[in-house]
Specification:
Elements (H helix, E strand, L loop, with lengths): L19 H20 L6 H8 L3 H13 L1 H15 L1 H20 L4 H11 L5 H12 L2 H33 L4 H21 L25 H24 L10 H26 L18 H33 L7 H13 L1 H15 L1 H19 L8 H25 L8 H23 L4 H22 L6 E5 L5 E5 L2
Antiparallel strand pairs: 1-2
Helix pairs in contact: 1-5, 1-7, 1-8, 1-9, 3-6, 3-10, 3-12, 3-17, 4-5, 4-7, 4-17, 5-6, 5-7, 5-9, 7-8, 7-17, 8-9, 8-13, 8-14, 8-16, 10-11, 10-12, 10-17, 12-13, 12-16, 12-17, 12-18, 13-16, 14-15, 14-16, 15-16, 15-18, 17-18
Length: 503
């Protein structure tokens, strides 16, 4: 059983190289960077959008929730597609499609159009999953945490880049429609790079196998217990969308009628039932009479996936929620006491996501170097403390003190993102896209959950809620998650077995 290392360059990571695996890494993070610019192009411009459309606070908060809602099912779907068809075509199509939604959002004329296209733009957030699979194909296990951290951190910086540049671009363009042209410019960027990406990458190195799942529709699991845990962990993906439907029902924002709302509930219930059927279809051999145990070389523990799901719900879910609301939070908190402008508030808020550039790679590096479970536990504990501190910030604080607290929280949030995805590619190679998709979707479940909490409470209580949830998940990780050891095995199409080193 030969090790799957043929064609994979095991030399050190050289960030100044643009050949081989490093070219793939740079193209991957650039694609992800652009997708994040598009995904969060509206957050730093929200004050201008609010003024153009005369939006209420609840309408603004709905846009924040809508922006992350579709990403939940999209990451599941994209995870399946990338495992089946490969990253090259999947990422290219995703970027091109998102550019269309971006143009439509930029030139929306009514709030209904604005909300609809913001919801559809959530699809671009699924791009993250694609690069996770692509990078894992090109880097050995001993480097994959660092490589995935660079990919995620530098790509995530797209939201900070949007916060730093788009308000200034809108001001430079000028006029009431300056924000529209600033948003539209990000669509042009996505469309152009979709072509560059397609002609610049390969799914995997020459001489290696791109392992594909045997079936499309759900992940394979190794035991009956894992089957039921998989079904349980699927439920929050649909519950988060049900919460969104409830939020825009007559009981709340009154955008949808009762009939439409209940139709959405019924559709979500039907989709969940269908997903359970798909999980059973893929894994029905576990329930067959005289069923044989899954061979040892094909087994993995689904509790690993569950722990990563919940961890990412806290790390990335809270990041999505916070970067969506932080520019407006700073503006509203300090506009009178410190005469803070919209552009200044957006620039300060960009610090939170901006640290992704350094800390997400650091989280991956520390995981590779000192242990994956230990690193994830430390980041979750620090994240909890950071959010408890953020919960104390109000107008009586000085801006420098508030920035210090944001930096402290951001250090742990962003390194936690890297720590989670240092583990994802080591669960099961042929399912990496689906594991990454499910884990990524839970990030959006967290975002929807926390932003929904924000719609009912003050910003301070919002931060405290995240801190408390992080503490619970920290304890779960300490008692449930296992450090990857040894090797994993995958079966080639010809039936031969390849041994993949996890050290």
């Amino acid at each position: 059983m030969p090790s799957n290392t043929t064609g994979v360059d095991s030399s050190k990571i050289n960030l100044f190289s643009f050949t081989g695996k490093m070219k793939i890494l740079h193209m991957s993070w650039l694609a992800f960077f652009i997708s994040f610019i598009v995904w969060f192009n509206f957050a730093p411009l929200m004050a201008s959008i609010r003024e153009t459309f005369g939006l209420s606070d609840q309408e603004v908060k709905l846009l924040l929730i809508l922006n992350v809602a579709l990403t939940i099912p999209a990451r599941i779907l994209i995870g399946m597609l990338v495992d089946k068809y490969g990253p090259k075509i999947t990422f290219s199509v995703l970027l091109a499609l998102s550019s269309i939604f971006c143009f439509l959002f930029a030139f929306a004329e009514t709030y209904a159009e604005l909300a609809t296209y913001r919801f559809l733009l959530g699809f671009v957030g699924a791009g993250f999953v694609i690069g996770i699979r692509l990078v894992s194909e090109w880097f050995p296990a001993k480097q994959v945490g660092t490589a995935e951290g660079i990919y995620g951190g530098w790509g995530n910086f797209g939201s900070a880049a949007a916060a730093m540049t788009l308000p200034m671009l809108a001001l430079w363009i000028g006029g009431d429609d300056g924000w529209r042209w600033a948003v539209a410019s990000t669509g042009v960027l996505a469309l152009g790079f979709s072509l560059i990406f397609y002609f610049s990458v390969s799914n995997n190195p020459k001489g290696t196998t791109y392992f594909r799942p045997k079936n499309l529709g759900a992940m394979e699991v190794s035991s009956k217990g894992d089957f039921f845990l998989y079904c349980l962990m699927t439920a929050p993906l649909y519950l988060a969308l049900a919460v969104l439907a409830w939020k825009i029902s007559p009981d709340n924002l009154n955008i949808f009628s009762s009939t439409t709302t209940y139709s959405i509930y019924a559709a979500l219930l039907g989709l969940y039932a269908y997903q359970i059927f798909q999980i059973f279809r893929i894994n029905k051999s576990l329930f067959a009479t005289n069923a044989k145990p899954v061979p040892e070389i094909h087994r993995y523990k689904f509790k690993q996936v569950a722990a990563l799901n919940l961890s990412y719900m806290i790390t990335f879910g809270s990041e999505l929620a916070v970067i969506s609301m932080l520019p407006l939070f700073f503006f509203d908190t300090f506009k009178e006491t410190a005469d803070l402008s919209i552009a200044q508030a957006a620039l300060i808020a960009s610090t939170f996501a901006g640290l992704n550039l350094i800390m997400r790679p650091a989280g991956g590096y520390f995981s590779d170097k000192f242990g994956r479970k230990k690193t994830l536990g430390i980041t979750l504990g620090g994240l909890s403390a950071g959010y408890f501190l953020m919960g104390q910030v109000d107008a009586t604080w000085s801006i420098p003190a508030a920035i210090v607290v944001i930096v402290i929280a951001s250090l742990f949030v962003n390194s936690g993102n890297g720590a989670v995805y240092a583990l994802v590619p080591l669960v099961k190679r042929r399912l990496t896209g689906q594991v990454a998709g499910t884990t990524g979707a839970f990030g959006n479940v967290g975002a929807v959950t926390f932003l929904t909490v924000l719609s009912f409470v003050s910003s301070q209580v919002f931060f405290l809620t995240i801190g408390a949830a992080a503490l619970v998940v920290f304890l779960l990780v300490m008692f449930v998650l296992e450090e990857p050891k040894g090797y994993m095995y995958e079966e080639n199409e010809d039936g031969s077995i390849e041994k993949i080193d996890l050290h």
